[in-house]
Amino acid sequence: MLSCRKFPTRAPIYLACRSRSPALYRFFSATNDTSTSKPFYITTPIFYPNAVPHIGHLYSLVTADIFARFTRISEPSRLVHFLAGTDEHGLKIQKAAKDRGIEPSVLCDTLSEQFRRLGARANISNTVFLRTTEARHREAVENVWRHLAAQDLIYKGTYSGWYSISDECFYTDSQITHLPSSPTPISIETGSAVEWSSESNYKFRLSSFRERLLDYYTANPNSIYPSAHRERLIQTLKDEPLDDLSISRPRERLSWGIPVPGDTSHTMYVWFDALTVYLTGVGFPAERQGSPWPPNIQVIGKDIVRFHALYLPAMLLAMGKPLSHTLLAHAHWTAQQRKMSKSIGNVADPFDAMDAWGVDAVRFYMARVGGRFRDDVDWSPEQLEKHADEIRSLLGNFFLRITSRTIQKRVASAPQLTFAQLLDHSLDGPNGDVLSSLRTLKGRVERCMEKFEVGDALDAIILVLREANGALTHTAPWSTQNPPEAAQVSYLLSLEVLRVTGICLQPFIPEAARNLLDALGVPKGERSMDFVAVGKGNVGEVKGVKLFEGKREIASRDQ
Ligand code: MSP
Description:
The protein is α/β, with parallel strands linked by helices. It has helices at about 55-75, 90-100, 105-120, 135-150, 210-220, 225-240, 270-275, 275-280, 305-320, 350-355, 360-370, 380-400, 405-410, 420-425, 430-450, 455-475, 485-505, 510-520; strands at about 40-45, 80-85, 130, 155-165, 170, 175, 185, 195-205, 225, 245, 250, 260, 265-270, 295-300, 325-330, 335, 340, 375-380. It has 18 helices and 18 strands. The strands form 5 sheets. A 6-stranded parallel beta sheet has the order 3-2-1-14-15-9, with helices on both faces. Strand 4 and strand 5 (about 170) form a beta hairpin.
């Protein structure tokens, strides 16, 4: 049985619970006994199947997958519940189907499958893929509606204002602008066309949650990451009124959706429907012991913070349910420094990218360049190529160099030595530096991941690999000028670097990391973070294999 690290207990987040410690939330087990802790629950946004997936969708999936996989290796006995899916109702889908002259259900069936395929192709380890057109979801949404209605939190009212079909969002006068270049007014924030709506609809008393939401975000520093989103939200809650939210549209306008219980002349607003998916994903309305609720991390894009940080929490508070621990709101990918858009023709296709460079190269690029989440990043095939080469060289080529026949022969001619025996001697020079870095790697990676700093975690691993590559070049174990004993030291140390970094890299580049650990003969039970300690795990019989799909590992100059 693997032992698990002890972390301070963190009480579940209800509004009553104010976190006093400014320490960042740790998503690892709250106790030493992971068998009794709640499953780790992580979600991606559910995607609109109105068009084929793009790079932005893959980014949400990969980001969530990195945390899901990291949790699995940090707490191997803890269940990880990981939800992804498609958001299939609403005007946007209704319109997309009409434009193509097909039924919305046909459009959704076809495109939802593309999103499922995207996850499978990218090695996303989600445990649930939910479509909002499924019966189990409809049951959950109707249940939430009835629950809120029973508490008099829903009333019939009127809405006069702007609506963007593309954003599926209501806008006030102050949120839109009239540009001479645009035939319709547009949303200032998103640039999407808006249209005037004046209709009767059902409303949710969102306004009555303002104080509680403000208290919650003020008291919970780790509720949204990066924190700038939380700060902005607090300011908005302080400065602006929080209006009640329209949660239905007249049926003659929106027919593709879930009818309002008891009033089929209205269809539920798509976000009310969609946000409930996170509850459907844990089996709601059935209450069961050991439920994964609440989500530990919800990965979302920066454009949908408001929906997840105001509407969803208000709905959950009304339901008496604990709120998600952390919303991780990532920035966007642009292309040629511009928002990706079909009309500009700069939409990057994730399938093409994975076919051309391989899944792990694309995942690596996304995590390395997009792993800071704060600023938009530009999608660039040249940069992708550069980063793909970096990891192929630092890991793949390093592995080939160390398992070359020349080195194997030299090592065989030296007196037998194990890595444990090697540790009895002090290593100096570049080898000593590598060993020191390796010893602190676990702590660095864990600290970064606890702080949601995926890019920094990866940097720490890359740094060790870079140092180890440099040390290998410096000690030149293949050279007959150096004694076989020196070759053996380099060999053993390099294998340990590969074992330890290979474990750490599993969340980021799962396939290459698995190939590597398999090739090193690392037992399956020794691939958790517990074994990221110098000399703790075993390397078995080493086999030279290709680690990355696609392009070949770059041949070494040295051999
Ligand atoms: N259906 C809603 C989410 C409902 S969640 C209950 C939705 N769907 S979406 O398909 O438009 O977007 C899904 C996710 O992809 C969002 O998090 C969004 O931020 C993200 N991205 C869309 N374009 C993006 C980029 N160009 N770059 C990065 N992510 C982007 O919103």
